[in-house]
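We were asked to recover a plausible sequence for a given structure. The inputs and outputs are reproduced exactly as logged, with field labels preserved.

PROBLEM: sequence recovery
POSITIONS: 105
GIVEN STRUCTURE:
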């Protein structure tokens, strides 16, 4: 193998490497049976709102975040004023100033 050339390598020894995380390791009760670097793992922080908090243009990003926060604050105040309705899924306004919906896909 040429140093730095990992594309044309014929060796397929990836299965022998210790995985970073593994579902089977997550359920193991005996530490000696763990076969991954991390015992626990998760999706982590996921807002599913990437289209609202990412942009290549700083002004566009600022406008998007301000619109998102403004919508949140209006809905929070409306929720307070209406006595904290329990059925939020039926109550929340998911339209953000006529733009994209905030509903989950």
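RECOVERED SEQUENCE:
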């Amino acid at each position: 193998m040429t140093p730095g050339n990992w594309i044309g390598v014929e060796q397929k020894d990836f299965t022998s490497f210790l995985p970073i995380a593994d579902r089977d390791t997550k359920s193991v009760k005996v530490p000696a049976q763990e076969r991954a670097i991390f015992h626990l793992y998760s999706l982590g922080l996921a807002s599913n709102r990437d289209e609202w908090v990412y942009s290549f243009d700083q002004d566009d990003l600022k406008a998007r975040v301000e619109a998102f926060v403004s919508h949140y604050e209006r809905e929070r105040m409306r929720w307070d004023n209406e006595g904290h309705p329990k059925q939020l899924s039926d109550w929340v306004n998911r339209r953000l100033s006529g733009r994209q919906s905030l509903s989950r896909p």
